[in-house]
Design a protein that fits this description.
The chain is α+β, with helices and mostly antiparallel strands. The protein folds into 2 domains: 171 residues, Clavaminate synthase-like (Double-stranded beta-helix); 139 residues, Double-stranded beta-helix (4-Layer Sandwich), CATH 3.60.130. It is 26% helix and 29% strand. The protein is built from 8 helices and 22 strands. The strands form 6 sheets. It has a 9-stranded mixed β-sheet, with helices on one face. The longest helix has 19 residues. The radius of gyration is 19 Å and the shape is globular.
Length: 326
Amino acid sequence: MAEKYSSFFASVKTPFQREYGGVTFPAVLSPATSAAALAAAVKEQKTWVESLLHMHGAILFRGFESLATASDFNDVVEAFGYEELPYVGGPAPRTHVVGRVYTANDAPPHQKLHFHHEMAHLPSPPRKLFFFCEEESASRGETPILLSHIVYERMKEKYPDFVEKLEKLGWMYTRFMGEEDDLSSPLGRGWKSMYRTTDKIVAQQRAAEVKTKLEWVENGVKMIAGPTPGIKCDETRSRKVWFNSIATAYTTWGGKRNDDPKKTVNFGDGNPLPENIINHCLKIMEAESIKFPWQKGDLLMIDNFAVLHSREPFTPPRRILVALCK
């Protein structure tokens, strides 16, 4: 049953939504009429959409006939008027599609990517993410989402000492990279594409701009990011959030040069993370997450400060695109 919000949007209830403190997660919007164009609706009611995003953390736009191609997706992102965040320092191999639109991750379909905040290991991660389903998968391939403050609350209740230590020390992210992308891994980006240069000196400078150290080794480079806060305060909502990518860095194979994911992430003082606690954190994340099947033309808008996301393995074909905003 759809509740009409305006001449553009209708709110839709779906089986996959959950209630947290009386607030539905995520919000789901469909067109109020068949003629409603999403880019035009955004320009007309941007402030209202932003207030809805602040309340719910994520919005799924579904059923807009005007949203069918990568160019259509780019037009909607442009309609919001947010400044683009260049994808510098992020580990996922991606391909530019059009405008400010990229593929979400070019890794093989059997690879799972665990929950993370986009570019959480960097000092200035994107504030808003847009995902678009250009082609739905034959099976699975969801992009599960998860409220970060819920993870913080569950972990604080179960492991208060660990959370206090993570909040005090932060976390460090270390990985080895070759020159070119390693498409066998969801975290296999090479240093040339990561820093958009073939010059080692320029790469070093661009890494330093995002508080990352590069140590050149034979046939590659060791990247050290951090210490970075693992817990942050979401001042706009007056709550703490589990703002890190520990789960994905700890569990996701990083390619041929990173054979043990457990070595890629540590406390900010360099000491290892307790495996049993990380494993239980993964279980909490899975239990609290929302998973919905992509439909062609879906657009998912995420507040990256409030919501973590992941990627399920899938059966091709599947094409999910992404745009990052400051």
